[in-house]
């Protein structure tokens, strides 16, 4: 890895490295083709509000409320940097959801505009419950995961993972509870923690031990938690690290892991003896 420009003092936790900077600054530290996997979920740009209209802003004066055109350009700039730093056989996983703005659904398909990657597959993260409820539409119970690659013929995929399918049944309730910490009477909680099982799937299906994984929107630290557990070298960028530092450290060092989707699928096949069983009962 080539440190082209050192921006901010890096923090190392159990071999995982965090740069407390905006990701577009952080990418300047990475050489072309230096990493094997990028797995992330960017902010939603919903003005700090969820559907219940309760404000859940990030720290540092960031209200997640950019003008829509500026937000889209920012995400496209991030995608281009992901393409630059990714190895030719690497994978880029991007989790984004359909947003509701002024009563109108805006699916994230605009990320395909001017996109230098090949879309290998679109995947669905289905969860059993949601906080985004109202009385004028069906409750939203899924988000998209886009799997991008650079080379259609030369990409790493641990193909035993193919059996989990392209709809991933994962609850996010446990992750929300894990990303809450009390410090001297103050409660620190990340407003949108990344799911451990999502990160397990993205990382383990397309990397090997020792590979370098980057999460440009580290958030609560989930991706580096998974990297530590499974012997990958994680790098995260998080501009609000100073506020979330105790929570991120606790999460990276945690040994509380759910079974992977692959483990659950194999267990289901062993118990089923050919009978049809629903996988989603394991994620209630």
Secondary structure blueprint with pairings:
Blueprint: E1 11-13, E2 16-19, H1 23-26, E3 35-40, H2 68-85, E4 86-96, E5 99-101, E6 104-106, E7 118-126, E8 142-149, E9 167-169, H3 173-178, E10 180-183, E11 186-189, H4 196-204, E12 212-215, H5 222-229, E13 233-237, H6 241-252, H7 261-272
Helix pairs in contact: 4-5
Polypeptide structure, described:
- The protein is built from seven helices and 13 strands.
- It is α/β, with parallel strands linked by helices and 284 residues long.
- It has a single domain (11-283), classed as Rossmann fold.
- The strands form three sheets. It has a nine-stranded mixed β-sheet. The protein has a two-stranded antiparallel ribbon with strand order 5-6.
- A hairpin with a 2-residue loop joins strand 1 (11-13) and strand 2 (16-19).
- The model is unreliable at 1-6, 49-62 and 274-284 (pLDDT under 50).
